[in-house]
Write a structure and sequence with these properties.
The chain has 444 residues and is of the alpha/beta class. It contains 16 helices and 15 strands. Bound molecules: 4'-deoxy-4'-aminopyridoxal-5'-phosphate. InterPro entries: Aminotrans_3, Aminotrans_3_PPA_site, PyrdxlP-dep_Trfase, PyrdxlP-dep_Trfase_major, PyrdxlP-dep_Trfase_small.
């Protein structure tokens, strides 16, 4: 890999950075300049082990030549074409490939695919489909959506309405939504390996909200089967099954937001497969193109699709779509990505590594400041006790220390989140753990 030239440091003033303390960052920037395999290279030319798959998206690692070639070929063949009242072959081809791996048995398969440009767009799309479907089957009063405390569903107005991270929604108007309680319950589940055993009764909160608002007002409930952005909150054993049963009882659609868990993070195609619970709609993005070209997709059940295909012949069934829905270049990247996942057996690889990953992470149990360790598939979280009077400061210190020592982690508040590419080797897992251990020991 070429040496990165520091003289290339760009002017930083103009890019208004997302979800970033801009002034703090620009005073001491961290720039990632190149990437290959499991590693980034920073602007000084130092390697940085990717402990987060970028932002939960580069599941097959970086610099995948097959994706580059597919994108180059597609750009040269058909760079863009609309999908409104028009089509192009590769969008249909990619949708069919995605459909082949969709969860659900033959009757309940979620194999109708609506393309979007991101996770946030997938969420807004799924919410609209849910409300439109209810209306089309004569349930037009069902317009409310139930989300969950601490849920993250992107930053569109739909997503923040159903999302439960307070900072993301506090100052903005929202669509009618309400939130189930979902606490971490560290007290009962601290350091549990894999799924927490206590807390299935939290699902009963959905029943409470149904009674409060009336089932006839509720279109859907949306949850991340495993929430990532709030700091890796795992569903207690039996929780998702219970949500499914309550939703079924009241004619409420169940939406799984799998923007993080889709495409192998838990060692299965989707979290729905991992848990054996089939929702009615699944939102995806990120790993769909290995993070290379922005794209998302909503997987809908045939029942929902068919339910919306009932208007007069020739009429548009769903007034919704994006210029970039099914963008040909993103589809090419997506097809190449699926081929890599399949040819290299990356999902099985993730499943096989999960136990090694679990034991490696839990070896940090007992270190000062460590309040909890959680893991599932190739996801991990280390929760720290907050520093008196400055929540988040301790984890940020560990984050900066790790980066200086060649490891990229992610922090949310005082929770460190880990989600390495599925190509990770055992010795690289050991490196993640030892760099973290040193940083934790140094943390004040
Ligand atoms: N839903 C979930 C569960 C996510 O984790 C994210 C992004 N981290 C989103 C939606 C939003 O995706 P995007 O940033 O691509 O809009």
């Amino acid at each position: 890999m070429d040496q990165v030239n520091k003289a290339n440091m760009p002017v930083l003033d103009h890019f208004w950075m997302p979800f970033t303390a801009n002034r703090q960052f620009k005073a001491a920037p961290r720039l990632l300049a190149q990437a290959e395999g499991m590693y980034y290279t920073d602007a000084d030319g130092n390697p940085v082990l990717d402990g987060t798959s970028g932002l939960w998206c580069c599941n097959a690692g970086h610099g995948r030549k097959a994706i580059t070639q597919a994108v180059e070929r597609q750009l040269a063949t058909l760079d863009f074409a609309p999908t409104f009242q028009m089509g192009h072959p590769i969008a249909f081809e990619f949708a069919s490939k995605l459909a082949a791996n969709a969860p659900g048995g033959t009757d309940a398969k979620l194999d109708r695919i609506f393309f979007t440009g991101s996770g946030s767009e997938s969420v807004d799309t799924a919410l609209k489909i849910a409300i439109a479907y209810q209306r089309s089957i004569g349930q037009g009063t069902r317009t409310r959506i139930i989300g969950r405390e601490k849920g993250y569903h992107g930053v569109g107005f739909g997503g923040i309405s159903v999302g439960g991270l307070v900072n993301n929604r506090r100052i903005f108007p929202q669509i009618p939504a309400d939130h189930m309680r979902h606490t971490l319950d560290i007290e009962r589940n601290a350091f549990s390996k894999g799924l927490p055993r206590a807390g299935v009764e939290l699902a009963d909160d959905l029943e409470r909200l149904v009674q409060l608002h009336g089932a006839e007002t509720i279109a859907a409930v949306i949850v991340e089967p495993m929430s990532g952005s709030a700091g890796v909150i795992l569903p207690p054993v039996g929780y998702l099954e219970k949500l499914r049963a309550i939703a079924d009882k009241h004619g409420i659609l169940l939406i799984f937001d799998e923007v993080i868990t889709g495409f192998g993070r838990l060692g299965t195609p989707f979290a729905a497969d991992y848990f054996g619970v089939t929702p009615d709609l699944i939102t995806t993005a990120k790993g769909i193109t290995n993070g290379t070209i922005p794209m998302g997709a909503v997987f809908a059940s045939r029942e929902i699709y068919d339910g919306l295909m009932t208007g007069p012949e020739g009429a548009i069934e769903l007034f919704h779509g994006y210029t970039y829905s099914g963008h040909p270049v993103a589809c090419a990247a997506g097809i190449a990505t699926l081929e890599i996942y399949e040819k290299e057996g990356l999902l099985t690889r993730a499943a096989d590594l999960a136990e090694y990953w679990q034991e490696a992470l839990h070896s940090l149990n007992g270190l000062r400041h460590v309040a909890d360790i959680r893991n599932l598939g190739l996801v991990g979280a280390i929760e720290l006790t907050p520093r008196e009077g400055s929540p988040g400061a301790r984890a940020y210190e560990v984050f900066a220390d790790c980066f200086k020592n060649g490891l990229l982690i992610r922090v949310t508040g005082d929770i460190i989140a880990l989600s390495p590419p599925l190509i990770i080797e055992k010795d690289q897992i050991d490196t993640i753990v030892s760099v973290l251990e040193d940083a934790l020991k140094r943390a004040s």
